[in-house]
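FYI - complex with NAP, inputs then prediction.
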Amino acid sequence: MATALVTGASSGIGAATARALSSAGHVVIAAARRLDALEETCSSLEGPSIAVAMDVTDPASVASGLEEARAFAEDHGGITWLVNNAGAAESAPVGKTDDALADRMLEVNFHGARRLTEALAPLMIEAGGGAVVNVASSAGLHGYAYVSAYCAAKHALVGYSRAAAAELKEKGVRVSLVCPHYVDTPMTDASAERLAEKTGKSEEELRAFFASENPGGRLVTAGEVAGTILELLADGESGSLVELDGSGDAPDGE
Ligand SMILES: NC(=O)c1ccc[n+]([C@@H]2O[C@H](COP(=O)([O-])OP(=O)(O)OC[C@H]3O[C@@H](n4cnc5c(N)ncnc54)[C@H](OP(=O)(O)O)[C@@H]3O)[C@@H](O)[C@H]2O)c1
């Protein structure tokens, strides 16, 4: 049994990861900005959990959220697993990607994960070991049109994770990456909604388009990503990178 802090656990992949961890008998610290949505996630879990309000772009909010998380984890062996999943994707063409947008993308997708890793890795080392899984994206490995700032931030997260994996391996902390293509979550729904307004196409048509863009021809499910995260936390080799592209059949019930 481990105690895992999951950011972005109020929705999509993060909420699915909280459920997968709890079903496997682990203790969950669910973090994000929306406390009501986090409490909803926690109320669906079988084992011990806590909802912790935390804005990963705000160092003071990260510090106070971590204080609360660590106090809760004291009775559960301390925080030895971290899932950096909080993220956001905004789009704009090159030429209209201003400093503010680039900063927003870097803050939430890169600095947030870096901040939590910096705070928790020393504690994991002290505790004798731990594991970090960073949720990047296929946009951390490939370039996509109209999301240059998001791609840049996810590439930064991939680079940081690879360096941290190399450095922390000898100290007992494994760092791995999950890089999904389009996943069936509220983030993809929001992209379809925005694009529908711009193009006049229906949201259903756009969701089908996103699915067709995935090499496997279907959207990845949040449960598949959560299952991969759980495997990597439990015994993934440090420096592992798993790209999920919708290949194979979707798991039953999703
Ligand atoms: N959906 C996809 O197609 C896809 C593909 C590849 C990678 N990803 C990545 O997967 C991760 C999860 O995305 P998702 O698809 O599950 O999207 P989602 O349903 O929109 O969830 C995003 C989560 O991030 C949290 N979050 C956003 N800004 C935050 C902040 N400043 N501080 C703390 N938490 C914050 C949100 O919670 P609050 O609003 O409550 O703060 C929410 O729980 C993201 O990193 C995303 O880039 C998604």
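The chain has two domains: 3-180+221-243, 182-219. The first strand starts at residue 3 and ends at 7.
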